[in-house]
Amino acid sequence: MTRTDQDILFTALAFVAVLTNGQAIKPHEAPEKTRELARQINDFCALHVGSPTPDVLADEADAVIVDQLIERHVQELRANEATILPENRNTLIRLHDRLQIRNVRRINRVLYTELSDDKLADFVLSYLDEEIEAAEATA
Questions:
Q1: 68-110: per-residue pLDDT in tens?
Q2: Domain-by-domain residue ranges, the chain?
Q3: Would the pTM of this model clear 0.90, i.e. be above it?
């Protein structure tokens, strides 16, 4: 199934859900509600069903999907001051890991402006040593 096929399927499913939800929806609201529900179906399927993405790109593709999920929760928090987090433990772990990475990157942007080249090189060597120690510990 191609990405376009998936988009069409998710949109069709969302359209049916919007129509059959039993709520009176104004005609001008239906397209946006349908698109939002299609995005949620897409996010759910990407996190729980899997992706045809090759293993080489799995981390990168996963990051994009999780970033989209994070942005949806951020938008919900801004709009409603609340959001419903997934109950699936693996999804929560992926969200936590990705948010942690994003936070470290924000902190590092500030840190890089204040570090000398020598100090930055010291950090790199220290992390390389940790990589060697971790590899030896698991061998």
A1: 899 999 999 999 999 888 888 888 888 999 999 999 999 988 8
A2: 3-84
A3: no
Task: From 2, 72, 61, select the one nearest 38 (Cα to Cα).
Answer: 72
Q: Is the backbone of residue 73 left (phi > 0), alpha (psi -120 to 50) or beta?
A: alpha
Which of 59, 46, 119, 37 has its CA nearest to residue 88?
Answer: 46
Amino acid at 64: V
CA-CA distance, 13 to 83, in Å (whole number)?
Answer: 22
* Phi/psi at 68 (5° precision): -65, -40
Distance in angstroms (rounded) separating the CA atoms of residues 14 and 39: 9
